[in-house]
């Protein structure tokens, strides 16, 4: 019998994963937390916002796979010293790129203003700048950030990127580190945030960042699109910046506390477009074959790919 997989999906329905995993490898046992009849048989754990004790008493665990794009839900657990694998998959990447491009165009093509005009029955064309007059800055140049940047460059936008360490991306003006943040912000009209949540990035979207964005662009004012993690944003600073016009708008897919409280001001803020952490949902039927392929390659002696650096937390 092949080594078993433990599936611990937290708030997700595990049945959405059981079928695709069985289809990809019918001979591989899959146990669903907390029903684990043979803990010694488990060699791999597939996790998403799992209970803290999900990995307890698994003596032969060899690798952990995060079922989402982020890994902050995993690195916060008391983990055994085994490799942690991030999910990098074309389906997940394209879903995020679709979301980013949609919201860049939403603000660029003045959809919020047209929606307001529609409510008031106003028929008036608004001046539309060309894409090459608009500067999009992407915070986070990992797999997701690079793919979104590539599409935005092809659409004609001026694209820049910022990351903790220096990166080179074709067609993208790249900035890095603390010294690179201010010049990056100063040339950004639409800020796209795809950073991982780490101790160094928690709360990075604060008043200082919002005030550092460009004021001389083709848009009425700077815009923030956060599709990374809610913990990246200082929500008091974000609301204040939206209230006083420091930010002209925001598209927010993530929040510090989810689900978002019904009394939150974000729901009804006139400058906010809100989605319920839906930018890049993990589709089990698309991701399961890649996970099983990694496991099979690992069992043949090949190294695991897309490993998490525990010290950097991503």
UniProtKB/TrEMBL annotation:
GO terms for molecular function: glyoxylate reductase (NADPH) activity; hydroxypyruvate reductase [NAD(P)H] activity; NAD binding. It is an enzyme of class 1 (oxidoreductase). This is Glyoxylate/hydroxypyruvate reductase A. Pfam families: 2-Hacid_dh_C. The keyword NAD applies. Residues 103-279 form the D-isomer specific 2-hydroxyacid dehydrogenase NAD-binding domain. It comes from the Bacteria. Keywords: NAD, Oxidoreductase, Pyruvate. Its EC number is 1.1.1.79, 1.1.1.81.
